[in-house]
Amino acid sequence: ISSGASVVIAQSYGRNDEEEISKAVHTTIAFGIILSIIISVFMVINARGILEFLKVPSEILPKSTTYLRVLFMGFMASLLFNMGTGILRATGDTKRPLYFLIIAVIANIVLDILFVVYFKMGVFGAAVATVLAQILSAYLIIDSLAKTEFAHRLDFSKLAIDKEVLKKILIIGIPAGIQSSLFAISNLTVQSSINFLGADYVAAWTTFGKVDGLYWMGIGSFGIAITTFVAQNFGAKQYKRVKDSVWICFGISTIYSIVVTALLYFSSPYIYTLFLKDQTVIDLSVKIMRDIAPFFVTYVALEILAGALRGIGDSIVPTVITL
């Protein structure tokens, strides 16, 4: 949904349509608040049942349930940060979201140490630390939108859903959301199988996911960049710049993928020792990384071309391909 809003705002920004920018901003935030409440309530109520369905080992089920419920109690903050970030990026401001995220990450680390190490709050403390960091990031992003002097300024008295603008956002955002969900569903299927194998495999897969995230966050940023750049230039009818930017971004992200793959493939045994002490789990984590990392580069085509298609308002084709 955030990516759908980004495209609508970026295209309006390219056309210099300030009225539609304002409508899109207020529709996005209002819809985000409603959506986050629905998802939060559903997940808090059904957290344990979902984890049992995924065959989470019984010895970690209570803590996993606690962690998930606390995270989703603070889900609105996470969603608002992503919505607000999408708005700022659509208008060309990529620096402040980065600064706010850095602040939130530092806060999360400090709070983790405080709650887990000093207050001995365990998994509950780790979850609370994450939620508080997300609340901080959401406050910073919303505050920056409320104080800007440009067309994307957030005025709380104007919070409302414009049906036509929401329709445009959902036409792009729902297929993009389904595309993201397909990967999540695929990973959940894998996770349920791994959970059946026991705690060592769960630990190895979870740790792999943390390190693996270094690649996905990077390649995802290229997808966001090309979506915004294409949307702005498509709105301004600069079609040659649209095509040129796609191939430039494709080349850069391919080089990035090859470099990161090599780094993770060869250094993973040392990286995992930062998280783990159990050699069995380390060995499993390294095996997973070395089996999967060589194929990272294949994702470049989907991420960059799907991002470009979203930028011109077509999210259906990449969703079908992903499916």
What does this structure look like?
- By secondary structure, the protein is mainly α.
- It has twelve helices and no strands.
- It has helices spanning 2-15, 18-53, 61-73, 75-90, 95-118, 122-147, 163-197, 199-235, 239-272, 279-292, 299-311, 316-322.
- Helix 1 (2-15) packs parallel to helix 8 (199-235) and helix 11 (299-311) runs antiparallel to helix 12.
- The longest helix is centred in the C-terminal third of the chain and has 37 residues, at 199-235.
Secondary structure category? mainly alpha
Q: Helix segment count?
A: 12
The average pLDDT score comes to: 92
Report the order of strands and helices. Answer: HHHHHHHHHHHH
Largest sheet: none
Low-pLDDT regions: none
Radius of gyration: 21 Å
Strand content: under 5%
Beta strand count: 0
Oligomer kind: single chain
3D shape: globular
> What portion of residues is helical?
over 70%
Distance from N terminus to C terminus (CA atoms, Å) equals 18 Å
